[in-house]
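User: Here's a chain of 292 residues. Predict its fold as tokens.
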Amino acid sequence: MTALAPGVALRQGFSADALAGAAKPAAAAGALAVTSQALLQVDGVSLEYRTSERVVRATHRVSFDLHAADRFVLLGPSGCGKSTLLKAIGGFMPPVEGEIRLAGERVEAPGPDRIAVFQEFDQLPPWKTVKQNIVFPLVASRALDRKQASERAMHYLDKVGLTPFADAYPHQLSGGMKQRVAIARALAMQPRVLLMDEPFAALDALTRRKMQEELLELWDEVRFTLLFVTHSIEEALVVGNRIALLSPHPGRMRAEINSHEFHLASLGSAAFQAAAQRIHRLLFEEEGHATP
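Assistant: Prediction complete.
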């Protein structure tokens, strides 16, 4: 797959909102506006986990909604509950307060309608080839027979530019290539929501930028619905069309920002730098004094 050249606009069809006027106050618990168009609703969700010493609150009454073909980013410092929230949306832990709904149905367990890609390179069983890694979950879930699964695997390998490596094993791939396989495997399942938990964090800077380009190009072709976790302000502005800002521990919604106007070619521009600085202030200034 050919990577997008710098300057190619990916936000066609969206109205660009100037960041200066795009931040809005976080929704209060239980006050989430549910529309017929919302695919995923996170409504006043508080999450807790237990350590050997105490119960820790990871998020506190977080609310947002996700629409079909959104690229929605959860952004915040370490310990703000981003990954914990992703696990709850995946169905792996129940909220202690609030509710998560997918297409109007309460999320209570994992399912193939929500597939996750993590930052670890070793997500792929090493004894299976690249193609087999994509075919296996399709067959195991009984979504497709083996012939159909093989055809779909090759289709998505082509989209991530790895057709020549279909018969290679994971240890023969670079870190970036392994992540492409993981993305292809996830998209082949055709989930309603693709969950990505800092998938490029362990890559070097050049490979990370390349993967961001390819992810956006793939989204432009497929228009999948993406929920993306990062602690990088720059990555959030590039990858997302909407960004939820979470406060330090426990994670609370500080604001939601529209970022349709930014893309990789925006890096270094005055507007991009001003947006990044404003997000930094919103994230780290004292609680209760966020800029409206």
